[in-house]
Write a structure and sequence with these properties.
5-stranded parallel beta sheet, globular, 2 domains, 10 helices, alpha/beta, FAD/NAD(P)-binding domain
Length: 384
């Protein structure tokens, strides 16, 4: 599908059915499109609004950075999936919402009217607000452009990097630190600045102990301090990390400003407050999932695992709202989720609740799961 050139998309055709707008091509919306391809789209006009025609699967970014996947392997064709699901694809970015008036505004000046809206844009980067400004910083977010930005930074360096740092002790930051070691080999110094809570906060002692041994095995230094930039110098706690060539920040998602500015109920951090059916607490005709949303009935971590699994519930709930058929569904996370953290070209740490193991089979399993998930969407996009 091609982008629609008209400034007022609400006027394209006579309205004969409800209009659903999917804002953002995040992992939950991929699940919505997949459901509608497999089961048939609801009796509604659907518009997919996304800044990029292709989205990159976040789980394959460390492996791609390390050079183990080709640049195209982790891409999912959102525009093609939208076309197969019977949706109109609009290549643009949402910058404002009027939930009471049921309209969206885009960066190019288009106005899109909707009856029901689902938001899965992901969060925004927070490196500048958290640690300060520095030209050496490359924030993981926006995820879709991260690899191009880090490649540009590496190519623009005067010499081979001597010291690389990753800021962020969550699973994403940990995997990126190991990915840098695989990409550059043993020569550069690599430092993981985890924050005061250390690496893998919230995970069990066994997983953290295995990680500590893996960091030592790969000569990756770890500092359990908060990072900051002060007068052009990069610090971890009271320790200067200079000289330093490149800093990758993986600090989790911050909330975009436009949902709160439009009047949607948000939590104290600015994320869209939703109920167990992913509906906005203030405007139940607006749904949200993924990093941009915050469940209010129970804590759900901002993780790609949960974004992926919430897609089926989101699809069912949008179908119910548009047609009145079926029932509202809720995504309820399992007591524990399986995490697979790549540490080497063939090895990974597998974590499931208090259980943690390191070896080749978790690495093989991770590669198989990641490739299988991406390929499933490629098959759907090509299906007839």
């Amino acid at each position: 599908m091609t982008s629609l050139p008209l400034r007022d998309i609400a006027c394209i055709m006579p309205k004969t059915s409800p209009t659903i707008v999917l804002v953002g091509g995040g992992h939950a919306h991929l699940g919505v499109l997949a459901d509608w391809i497999r089961r048939g789209s609801p009796e509604a006009r659907t518009i997919m609004l996304s800044l990029q025609r292709q989205t990159r699967y976040s789980g394959m970014i460390p492996g791609t950075l390390a050079g183990e996947y080709g640049r195209e392997e982790g891409l999912i064709d959102v525009a093609a999936l939208a076309g197969r699901a019977g949706a109109e694809f609009v290549e643009d970015r949402c910058i404002a919402i009027d939930p009471a008036g049921r309209t969206l505004a885009t960066a190019s000046g288009q106005r899109i009217a909707f009856d029901y809206c689902s938001i899965d844009t992901g969060g925004v980067g927070q490196a500048t607000g958290t640690i300060g400004e520095d030209p050496r910083i490359v924030d993981v977010r926006p995820i879709g452009t991260f690899l191009a930005r880090i490649d540009e930074r590496i190519a623009g360096a005067a010499q081979r990097p001597r010291h690389l740092a990753v800021v962020g002790g969550g699973a994403g930051g940990v995997e990126l630190a190991f990915a840098l070691r695989r990409r550059f080999g043993s020569a550069p110094r690599i430092t993981l600045v985890t924050g005061a809570d250390g690496a893998l906060p919230g995970f069990g002692n066994r997983a953290r102990a295995l990680l500590e041994r893996e960091l030592a095995r790969h000569a990756i230094g770890a500092l359990a301090d908060n990072a900051r930039v002060e007068a052009g110098t990069f610090y971890a706690g009271g320790q200067s990390l200079e000289p330093l060539d490149i800093v990758i920040t993986s600090l989790g998602a911050a909330a975009p400003e436009w949902p709160a500015q439009g009047g949607l109920a948000v939590d104290p951090d600015g994320f869209i407050a939703v109920d167990r059916h992913q509906r906005s607490l203030s405007h139940p005709h607006v749904l949200a999932a993924g990093d941009v949303a915050a469940r209010q009935d129970m804590p759900v971590a901002r993780s790609g695992v949960h974004a992926v699994h919430s897609g089926k519930a989101l699809a069912a709930n949008l179908r119910h709202l548009a047609t009145g058929r079926g029932r509202l569904r809720s995504y309820r996370p399992r007591p524990a989720s399986l995490y697979l953290l790549s540490t080497g070209p063939r090895t990974a740490i597998a974590i499931y609740g208090p259980i943690a193991l390191r070896g080749r089979w978790p690495g093989t399993l991770k590669r198989w799961i990641d490739r299988r998930w991406v390929e499933s969407f490629a098959k759907l996009a090509q299906s007839v």
